[in-house]
Amino acid sequence: MKQGDLVVRKSYGGDVLFRIASLNDRMAILRGTDYRLLADSRIDDLETVQNPDELGGTLRARIQANESIRRMREERPPFGNVVSAPAADRRAYFEMPGKVLHLDGDANYLKKSMAVYRHLQVPAEGAHCHEAQMPEALLYLLPRVRPDIVVITGHDGLHKSRQDWTNLNSYKNSLNFVHAVHIAREYEKHRDSLVVIAGACQSHFEALMQAGSNFASSPGRIMIHALDPVYVAVRSAFTPFRETINISDVITHTISGMQGVGGVETMGRYRIGVPNLKTASSNVNIV
């Protein structure tokens, strides 16, 4: 058994697929492959997995991920006045979805997330950094990228020996996320000018909201899927700036649902403009 191996925990019935992040003599640090969960385990409680597609939980999580991406694609605009306009008029518009800055503590999740943004044509920049480095990273990235939406995520979880939900020290990375949200709010205090989406599995929802998040995990201290923060970011990017994001609709359509993600009323970040230079240039006659 070595770093990078896919494993499940025997004592939990092999319910979640993990990748070994690090090993010492008796213990392993684990990162979920489908869920944003950080865990530790005795090495003798681990079982290696050769074919992850044979695991029911993994297959179910990937089916849910595909469904989430399909829903994002179908819910993509045009919205509002563009929808009611004749097709010829619609071609005169260009789109300005909200720009996303996505910080992720997991390189594989970041790669998957950026692929979704590209597929849906959401302008996005991503950065992989350890959760403890995110506050410092934001100090540099926020003024450079100037995003409309910032995603602060990675891995989290409750310590086995500390089950006090109200204490930030009971969490593996919630305090790091809280510090990062504070930096984001120092940069832009208005929740409708910068949409902040923060947290991972079992994160301290109340602390993240009090720090200034618009959306956060996890009200029920449950596992959240890797794409849940992406889904919320995409819906924020494609909701018109004059409309509030439909909180209950967005959250109930995440893979984790209301126990996994919560939030407050927030205006969208999508705009349209004229003229559509691609269409206009095709109609230019050069004399």
UniProtKB/TrEMBL annotation:
<dbReference type="InterPro" id="IPR008764">
    <property type="entry name" value="Peptidase_U57"/>
</dbReference>
<dbReference type="Pfam" id="PF05582">
    <property type="entry name" value="Peptidase_U57"/>
</dbReference>
<protein>
    <submittedName>
        <fullName>Sporulation peptidase YabG</fullName>
    </submittedName>
</protein>
